[in-house]
Amino acid sequence: MSNNNENKKDPLLCHWADQMADKIIREKGDLDSYTCASGITPSGTVHLGNFREIITVDLVVRALRDRGKKVRFIYSWDDYDVFRKVPANMPDPEILEKYLRYPITMVPDTTSRNENYARHHEVDIEQQLPRVGIAPEFLYQASRYRANRYAEGMKLAMQNRDVIKGCLNEYRDDAHKMKDSDVYWPVAIFCGKCNKDTTEITDYDGEYGITYKCECGHCETADIRTFKGAKLGWRVDWPMRWNEEKVVFEPGGKDHISPGGSYDTAKLVSKRIYGWDAPVTMRYDFVNLKGVPGKMSSSKGKVIALPDALDVYQAEVLRYLFAGTRPNTEFAISFDMDVLKVYEDYDKTERIVYGVDKAKSEDHFNKEKRIYMLSQIDGKIPETMPYQITIRMLSTLLQIYSGDADKVIASLGDVKPEQEERLRRRIACAWFWIQHSAPDCAPEFCFALRKEGTKAKLPQDMAKAVAKVLSDVVPKIDTFQIDKDCQEAIYAVATELGLDAKALFTALYQALIGKDQGPRLGSFMRIIGKDKLEKLLGSVEGVSEEELKKAASNKKLTPAEIDKLPLAERFSRRVILKVSKIEKVEQHPGGSFLYILTLNTGDAEPRQIVSSIVQFYKPEELLNRNIVLVYNLKPANFRGVRSNGMLLAASEGGADDHDTCEVIFADDFEPGTILEPEGFDVPADVAEMCFVKPEKFAEMNLSTKDGFVEVEGKKIGSNGKFITVEKYKNGAIH
Predict the structure, then answer these.
(1) What is the per-residue pLDDT for 298?
(2) Rounded to a whole number, what is the largest CA-CA distance in the chain?
(3) Is 301 helix (H, G, I), strand (E, B) or coil?
(4) 126 and 176 housed in the same domain
(5) Per-residue pLDDT tens for 228-237?
(6) What is the CATH number of the domain that holds 603?
(7) pTM score > 0.85 for this model?
(8) Vertex 331, ends 328 and 337: CA angle to 5°?
């Protein structure tokens, strides 16, 4: 495909990336190599909006290579930029705050995983890109600047700073233009003593010498051929590197590519200062998010990154989302029910490519095939059509087999060896979606088959109806050709017994999964199979209304259902408070205000928590005392030490909890005692309760009243005894 005339005749090369490749060749000519560029400052999590730029370049790179062109795909880490803001999703923010105004490569990685803060975020994306078939050449700008690679480029900019000033003013209105009297320097300086960019250039010798002073008091004349702290401002750095790397294509966000924006000024600087025609560009729009599950958003400080998307979408399907949408079109990546449709759309394209479904026209076929090619990790269409199964069906199978991929594949019965790897990736995505997204967006999708050895309790008439289904329908389950046959057999039972069919369906769901609704029943029962149905429907017990009400009170609820309960009941269903004995008190090695407490919680193994109560209690005042532990609080790291829970303490109402603190001791209770609001028993599923996030615990609004610890006016305790405080008798709990 190296001949241009042949390319124009190839109907398959019809994608927007192909159109851009043709434009690059047309405008830049027939080159030995075409350099396509992308890049970002690794100042935080590289999110899906950033990924749109990366994959836009990748798609154009593939289009150029499909034309027989040699292409260099570079990705610049602008890691010599200044650290301006402490992010919400990194530990020990108080440490990071000390490094504000430093180069981000000099900021520590407070997770202790990588050599510095910038590298932490670089590694995150570098390790993930191969999963989606993207392999750029990474350039690290901090290393290049500190190696004085750009000394000549900086010298040229300093010598032509008035020309650059004119370029920057070109598209500004009079109110925002720099005046002739305004001093402008295209180079910024990190202080050679304190490393911060709190500097001011005071003189330039016309060659390599730049004199500066810093707020720290340091001043010097630096030779940019050897000095490590000089760099160009980004509006000049960008075009300087276009020339340095001979870039012919680089897209930009809508804010950069808008008329008179940074691309237009960089284009002027590139030509007038560095003699390089600006690269061909294209605008890409924002990527929105829809239906992000709570667990996912909080873990990244509400920033969704590539690995988060790959938890839900196969790599090919994620590429399909971007390849199938023009870059200048805004679109949303969904994590809710739309996930099912995205997979269905991808599968439809796949069926057209393999001739299973017929395309509307030849042009339609070529378009779908090209999108499918660009969606593949290696750009090649597999010889064998991948195994197709919907996320809806996989969700049902996975829950029947408790997430066991091997059993799911075995149950399908017709998966070829060459189809298995890709199918397993789809299974992993479906399992993640059903566990993390479906509980919020589609709780009716979520279920678990009733455990063997347990009994389903139903009203007497419904228990008899289920027994009738067991005797009349289940023996024939393997003979039904389609789901509708099974459905009609169940309807026939309801008609014969004079029952409402909906009531019978509800009873069957209760017998199978303990819920009123579930997957389409005919299909569901056929998937479960005769043997399991006999065990599940054969262990149904008809009981009185009174017993049913008692069973309902112990029913396991979804998080969404729990959130609708009155506060005290919500607390009982969500939070585990456990009396625990302090057996060891240690000073935290990384924090003078922190203790590390080792607790006896009544479990086989001791538990460790970190607590900021050093200023209020001496170790001997805590040792061997019983405290109240938020047992299922989500674990967290405090300066490198894992904390598995939080002790309860009271404070003066309305006061800052750093100023007042009274640990709530519970010496009248045995370690391991679970405390509940007055009138509530320990939930039957307490051992299965999930972690509670700190913000969810805070919503419970615990307080003290007349010396008792309460939630929604109900005292907290066990067996008629309640926990109390001595000092802050009408205060807050934290």
Answers:
(1) 37
(2) 101
(3) coil
(4) no
(5) 999 999 999 9
(6) 2.40.50.140
(7) no
(8) 165
